[in-house]
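Hey, resending since the last one bounced:
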Amino acid sequence: MPPKMVFQTPTNGLSISLAFYKKLNYSSVLIEQGALVSDGQYVLFINADRFARAGVRLYKDSWQNELEELSKLTTIHSKDGTHVFADPSGTWVYLIEGQTSWETSLEEDLLKNATKGLTGNFAGLSLECIDIQRSISIWNVLGFEKTMGGVEQGWIALQNEAKEGLSIMTANACPHLFFNPSFSFFNGKENNPILIEKMRANQVAFAEEVTHFNKEGIVDNVILRDPGGFGMFVFND
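The structure tokens again:
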């Protein structure tokens, strides 16, 4: 059975982060450590701990085999059953021995009952890094294998057994702001402008209005960044 993966964003104020996701039409539930938010496609843990960082949490009974391989690729900090390191993009990865501290059924209920978010169709996690070969090696150890792309193309897509997707871009591949880590959403050339206007109506702040891919200079892609630093690419393809 593949490790359970949970996305994490920190917060400088839980009410501030919840207000951000409410504008995007996400549903939420409070938990002891912060909150879980969802658009019905994925669940994001807003961690109110002041030492939390944006990244990925992976849960498994034991990480001993993986730690031996990862120690050859990066520096690992271990404490009380949690092993933390950063991949070459700077994204923090938490390897946690055991289960989440909240009920799995809570996540399932949130996914089932969540309203559709204004960010659109979720495509997975996106990272940008200089040492892409080392990044690929790290994620391979964690159970992610290539599905599309290649280093020579400037990007590569990986997926684990649970069909959770990850894309890694090389340096100078993306002519726009890039926050590590970020989510990608692809909505098509017709639907994306509609979602952008709905976000404007809800007074969602854009980190960047992207016109680079449009010959007429029209804003047809936008980049968001939540209060904890997690990015979101809301793109048309």
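The CA atoms of residues 60 and 97 lie 5 Å apart.

Sorry for the duplicate.
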